[in-house]
Structures are given as structure tokens and as C-alpha cells.
Amino acid sequence: MRILVVEDEVDLAHTLHTGLTAEGYSVDLAHDGRQGLWMARTGEYALVVLDLMLPGLNGYKVCAQLRREGNATPILVLTAKDGEWDQAEALDTGADDYLAKPFSYMVLVARLRALVRRAAAVAPPVLAVGDLSLDVAGRVCRRAGTRVELTPREFAVLEVLARRAGQAVSKADLLYHAWPDEALDPNLVEARVSALRKKVDAAFRRQSLQTVRGTGYRLVDDRERD
Amino acid sequence: MRILVVEDEVDLAHTLHTGLTAEGYSVDLAHDGRQGLWMARTGEYALVVLDLMLPGLNGYKVCAQLRREGNATPILVLTAKDGEWDQAEALDTGADDYLAKPFSYMVLVARLRALVRRAAAVAPPVLAVGDLSLDVAGRVCRRAGTRVELTPREFAVLEVLARRAGQAVSKADLLYHAWPDEALDPNLVEARVSALRKKVDAAFRRQSLQTVRGTGYRLVDDRERD
DNA sequence: CTCACCCCATGCGCATCCTGGTGGTCGAAG
DNA sequence: CTTCGACCACCAGGATGCGCATGGGGTGAG
Predict the structure, then answer these.
(1) Is the CB of residue B193 inside 7 Å of nucleic acid strand D?
(2) Across the interface, do B39 and A147 touch by the CB < 8 Å criterion?
(3) CATH number attached to the domain at A2-122
């Protein structure tokens, strides 16, 4: 369970990091709005804790932008003021909950847990790119409705690519996200992608897993197009 | 049996907590409407005791919001006034019963017990996945109509899987939910699943209990399709 | 006491993944 | 257009660890 904390105050960021890590979450930190937006886009977080007062790009804009892009990751907003106006605006831009500073740590954890649980119950955990679908909860992969058996590692790699469909994902990123303990050899990725292509592309005469030479790979919808 | 008490008056909250705990319930407290709403949303409570007069978000709104979200947890409302109007409005927003303050503790417990019982009777306590059915209340398991004898632990494991049919459930999750006192060894799960497969699958030439390597297990309807 | 249940330890089988190597492909520079 | 170097695809063999099955013994219920 991965959580992104976007917070520029180093003390608070540090506190949140250690605290949430102790709760059993994997915590990543972003120190400004732009970085936060970038990291959140990967879609790999179960929840984003977002401060409203941020250098660069403020929290409202990060939140609004993510929602505009169709990203449905639950967002818990931290706000210094507790005026009604502040809350209203935050929730209007698409945040799922807010918390006024200073806040009780217990309350934060409770709200956060509730958010994660609700999101899991509501959000359809199915990633789709063209006629390729990944049921993340069920660990089931389908191409045009017919089921494709994937090994755990293959599924992990494909999931990362699907979460960033259309974007090129570097091998370093794939290694980082699909290999729990850090591995280093880019060949690992190449080997898994090769296996994936057989099952997911070649077996269906398709080419949705593209190589981006010098960078990595990209998963696209290849049904129409030139 | 878990109960949520949403009550801002600390004395009353404390009284309820100790009293209901003595009755054998597990009691959680929320001190305002907003917190109450969040906790109730988790859906893990057999009943919610809800004061109408609350800071932040009043009881009417909490109740209405929960019902709007499809949450069917029984709600027992506590109201300071006992006017007809008050009662009507509470019941209209979806509460299941009300009690005017001051109330007798005995009456509260009785009403509460009745509510829990009624809810249990109304909610269909039969989980079905394909032709496999689990009568949770009666602890009866059937495959295609014929009865299958399960031990308590086996039933608990199968119930968890059935509640999340189609999804992969991790061994850690199964351990957490099917072993009351925390256990740690994943082998416990493997052993129970192994026994379950014999009774529920092998005896019927079926394969509804699937292994999801590296993750856990999944219960599916295996009669049709891929 | 008897019996059912289930924890616990163990060994085996096999899927999965890594390793290393070879041949192929791409792209830029000559 | 050709050449060259770097990058990539893919294969086969072998190690690792996961998951399955089994049974003995402890424990609690009736």
C-alpha cells in the first residue's frame, strides 16, 4: 500500500513519513506541487496527502489537474486555515477529504484508512488500454475478453505500463516498481517484456507493447491508427 | 459485534462505552458528525448509535448521507427533544429507530439488540458464487444443492473468499480475517485451503478455488467461460 | 474419556525467474 | 547507401523459493 505525501515543510513531511511508515504504508515524498503532480500521475498510489500551501504549484491546482486528467486516486488535503471557504474550495476541486492543521495524528490515520477503504470499494480496479484489460484486484488479464495467464512478475510489469498508458516508461522505472527488492539489470525487464509480448501481443497478432529505443517501453491502444 | 457510538457529550459517550462494552459489544466512539460519518462508512459496524445534536455535521445529515451511499447499517438515533416532528424527520432520513433523552439504559440495550437481530434477519446471509452457496448464519455450505460439511476454520476461510469473489485475497488478509487471535504462518492458510479444495472442488470435479501465485487465493465461478 | 479439529513441521514438485550468450535491429555518421 | 556500434530480442539451462500435501500430536469440547 503506497502513499504519496506532498508537503514542503520538512519537519511535517518527515513526521508523516516515519509515522505512516510505522503504520505499514510505503511512503513517498514530494516537496512541491509540480513534483507531487508528476509523481501522482503514475497512478500507483492508494492515496495522496496534499498540502494546499505549496511552492510552485499550489494544492488546489494539483488536485484539479489530476481530476481533469481522469485520475481518481483519493486525495486528503491538509489546510492551515480552517475557514469554510477553504474546505469548500478544496472539496470542489475534487479532494475527498480535508484536515485542518494542526491535526491529531490519530485522526489523520483514521481518515486516511477510511478513504483507502472506501476507494477500494467504489473504484473499479480495472485498468484498460484498448481491448487489453487488467483487473488489479483479481490479478486477471484479458485481451478482447479472452483471458491471458500471466506470471506475477509479468503482471507487475504490465500493470506499471498500463497505469501510464501512452507514455514511455523507462526500464529504471519498471525495475523500481515491479521488482520489490531493488534489482539493477535492465535485461530483467527486457526478458519479462519479451514474455509479455508473446502472451499479450503475438498470440493476438497485435503490437501494443512498443519499444522506445534508448528509453524503455510504452503500452498503447493499437487497434486503430496509421 | 462492533458498535459505533456518535456522541459529543463526553459523559454520555463514556457511559455508553462502558455499558455496551460490558454487554459484550466492541464499542468505537466518534465525537462529531464528520468523524462519525467516516467511521460508519467502513461498514464494519453492526449498528450505529447516533446523536442528532452534533457539532460540525448534525445527525440528520450523517444519517441521510450514509443512506444515500447505500450503507444499510442499522442506525439508532438519540434525540434530546421528543417532539413528533423530530422523530419523523429522523426516521425519514433513514434511521431505524429513535430514543428520546433521557432514556433508560435498559431500554436502549433492548432496542439495540432488537435492531441488530432484525438487521441480521433481513440481510440475506447467503453468499453465492456460482453453484457454491454459504449460509453464513446457519454455517451451511452447499455445492450445487448438496451439502458439504466444513469445519469452523474452513468455513471462515471460505467465507472471506466468497465475500470477495473473483478477487485475489492475500494470505495475510485471510489470516487476519479468519484467525481471531493473530496468527502469522501462511502455511495455516495453505493447509486449510488444501482441505477445502478436497471437499468443495475435488469431490465435484471442480476448480473454483484458484491459486494466485505470489499473492494468495481467489474464489470464482468456474462453470462457464475461459 | 473420546473425538474432532487444527497447529506445526517436513519434503517434494514445479512454476517462475535469473543468467549468460547469440543473433538481430536500429540509427547516425561517413 | 553503407558501415559500425550500441541497443535490444530471445533462448535455454539451472537455481530458487513458493505452494501443496501429509501426518503426528496437542488441545478443547462434549
Answers:
(1) yes
(2) no
(3) 3.40.50.2300
Identify which has the larger pLDDT, B65 or A168.
A168
Categorise residue A174: left if φ over 0, alpha if ψ from -120 to 50, beta otherwise: alpha
Each domain of chain B, given as residue ranges in start order, spans 2-122, 126-219
Q: List pLDDT tens digits, range B139-166.
A: 889 998 899 999 999 999 999 999 888 8
Say yes or no for a CB contact (<8 Å) between A118 and B41.
Answer: yes
For residue B212, list chain A residues with Cβ-Cβ distance below 8 A.
139
For residue A10, the tally of other CB atoms under 10 A from its CB is 10
User: Are the CB atoms for B98 and B87 separated by under 8 Å?
Assistant: yes
Interatomic CA distance for residues B2 and B45, integer angstroms = 5
Kindly state the greatest CA–CA separation across chain B: 63
Task: Say whether pLDDT at A203 is over 60.
Answer: yes
Length B44 CA → C17 C1' (Å): 40
Q: Give the chain A residue whose CA is nearest to the CA of B71.
A: A118
Which pLDDT score is estimated for B50? 92
pLDDT in tens, A126-171: 888 989 999 988 899 999 989 999 999 999 999 999 988 888 999 9
Is any atom of nucleic acid chain C found less than 7 Å from the CB of residue A179?
yes
Answer whether A151 sits within 8 Å of B213, measured CB to CB.
yes
Task: Please name the member of A111, A137, A151 whose beta carbon is closest to the beta carbon of B167.
Answer: A137
Q: Where on strand D do bases come within 7 A of a protein Cβ? A: 7-12, 18-23
User: Which DSSP state fits B61?
Assistant: H
Residue numbers in B 66-85, CB below 7 Å of strand C: none
Q: Tell me the average pLDDT of chain B.
A: 84
List, edge to edge, every strand of the sheet that includes B168-170.
Answer: B168-170, B216-219, B209-212
What residues in B contact A117, CB-CB < 8 Å? 41-42
Q: Which fold has domain B126-219?
A: Arc Repressor Mutant, subunit A (1.10.10)
Chain center to CA of B197: 26
A49 - beta bridge partners?
A: A5, A76
Is the minimum distance from the CB of B153 to strand C below 7 Å? yes
How far apart (Å, rounded) are the C-alpha atoms in residues A98 and A108? 10
Contact B213 A114 (CB under 8 A): no
Measured CA angle at B160 (ends B117, B211), to 5 deg: 165
